[in-house]
Design goal:
Chain lengths: 408, 408
Amino acid sequence: MRIVQKFGGTSVGSLERIRRTADLVQAEIGRGNEVAVVVSAMSGETNRLIGMARELSPAPAGREMDALVATGEQVTAALLSIELQARGIFAYSCSGAQAGFRTDSQHARARIKHIDSAHLIRHMQAGQVPVVTGFQGVDEHGNVTTLGRGGSDTSAVALAVAVKADVCDIYTDVDGVYTTDPRIVPRARKIDRISYEEMLEFASLGAKVLQTRSVELAMRYDMPIHLRSSFEPVPGTIVSREDDTMERAVISGVAYNRDEAKITIRGIPDHPGIAANVFGPVAEAAINVDVIVQNVSEQGYTDITFTVPRDDFGTTMDIMHKLCGEMQARDVLGDDTVAKVSVIGVGMRSHSGVAKKMFDVLAGEGINIQMISTSEIKITVVIDESQVDRAVQALHTAFGLDAEESEG
Amino acid sequence: MRIVQKFGGTSVGSLERIRRTADLVQAEIGRGNEVAVVVSAMSGETNRLIGMARELSPAPAGREMDALVATGEQVTAALLSIELQARGIFAYSCSGAQAGFRTDSQHARARIKHIDSAHLIRHMQAGQVPVVTGFQGVDEHGNVTTLGRGGSDTSAVALAVAVKADVCDIYTDVDGVYTTDPRIVPRARKIDRISYEEMLEFASLGAKVLQTRSVELAMRYDMPIHLRSSFEPVPGTIVSREDDTMERAVISGVAYNRDEAKITIRGIPDHPGIAANVFGPVAEAAINVDVIVQNVSEQGYTDITFTVPRDDFGTTMDIMHKLCGEMQARDVLGDDTVAKVSVIGVGMRSHSGVAKKMFDVLAGEGINIQMISTSEIKITVVIDESQVDRAVQALHTAFGLDAEESEG
């Protein structure tokens, strides 16, 4: 097998952790696998570097920030290479530039254009282990770029695709994806296999285990991701193309996000182009609108309700109050104590009645649904924040996800 | 004027120091000069990185150590660029690779082959300030290399040559070169101008102010170095080609080095090739032999005496005891309580009697001379370590270097 192993900041956060990470690399080599490694900066290091820059300047230039923080992964790559070499493994560190990660020039959020991977494949075939800095590359002018926070997952998947790996192992401090948050539902189960599409829905709901961008990339190139623990030597969750075994469960998991706010602009004189009028200024402020519902309120007037991240609530309300006057709408209402709860599963494509069951369960708990949004494999409701725990628990049980039932 | 400014580790050792260093750059820009900057790692950072590597491996590979420690200067270059930009100066950081420093592949002691400087000159002419990482480059394969400890001075001089600067300002925590150590002679004076040759002699005697290699490079390309304080805004010492004003003083300074040991191998059967026999094994052990004296002792036999750094005394004695048997010499004597004292000055080329005056002064102080070595611009004697202070004081006065006399 050819494997890319990716280790996050906590997995390389100290010399002791680097040694344990080296154990995990050594084990794969010992199994006869070809291995390339992608590493993050030692946990805390990126923030330390950013902190120094911010002390010097309120708005440091992106180019310099990228050059600065990119050193974090370079340190880790060198240290892990040194540790691997001390064990007799022919490892060598590569910066983003050395590994061949070519990106565009958008500092702090660069996109990978391509990876010159021929040399990496050649070295891996010869039993050598490239230890590549995650999160970074170079643009066509040789400037160091970074992919943005969490970009190391994306680096790892992109590298796995470029070297034609069989799997991309992403080691982290959790041991996989769960059917829901175990802090809310103690009987939550680890999911053995999940499809890219479902993983994307989980990620978009704030599951911090994998960066959305890395899953999108894995899906596009059909690169299986094995999300696993760097602390426990147990199988984690395989994120891969949908297959037969996945079809057994209608719902794979229940996700939630408390970090939501809801805004309604009422009594807008109805004519074409209203949505663009409303959401244009919000997009310009770089605020991500999520669930959107539009209704006719009375003849010739319409209401629009949408959600935004709670941090952006104040800014969005200011924009809407201004728009309300310009558009001669009646008024603006806001509520920053709402939350989203979703059921997710590729199985719902072939099973009708999932939505009805969800609404029945919530009604049975006396939970009022404020908004509904559906995709092919997800149903999301917006409810009052105070009712999240109860909603998640009831749905987890009702859809047969509790550990005892499914494993009995 | 076009200037390269170089700042060492203490000059960029904290954010506060980086701000003060930015003042010094800004001042040169304010004078209408074109400026490029070379920086070291923040003081302590290189040792911190090396310490981590050593904890992982007793003998980490040179390639990885270079990749690791090179991040130190990269952090400083980015931070100083950020600070300069916050003042409205168009500064930008360059790693060794980005600045165009091409070196050979000898990790930890790479030599600069050439610098692709066209882009730097173009940017400087446009009023931009390249902030270049000292101490590092890349080899032809793109591997990061370092020039070895203190290599930042060499980087600065090489850059000054490559961009055709008028002067290379090296900022440090001393304000120049002194006629001798002010701790021994309170009336020591700062030297305003000194020739490359004299500076080399001072440096070879352990004056830590400038790395020998950087002075050799400056001499080869006739690049004036202005050695000055980053704390005090006063002129320092200009190291440059010998000129008329330098000829006034016969002696520029008195230097000493306590870090010496003396070894004598006596009664060697005399035949051609003895010196090679004696010094071959010492060179193989990477020990630098300094002063060498060879005498005929009795018919058919010779004695050889030489000095080595005190740290290498034990190793060298072991080598000599072994050789003594092989060469059928009589015996080996060692003394690790000796020191060197030198008078240095280009003026002695045209003034006879300097050596005689030196020996007279030492004799007058009752100091026994154990060895003598001379070059065109330096006379060195080896004496007992306990007599160093007295020798330096007496010579400083006798050659007219004391502050009151010369400035009166």
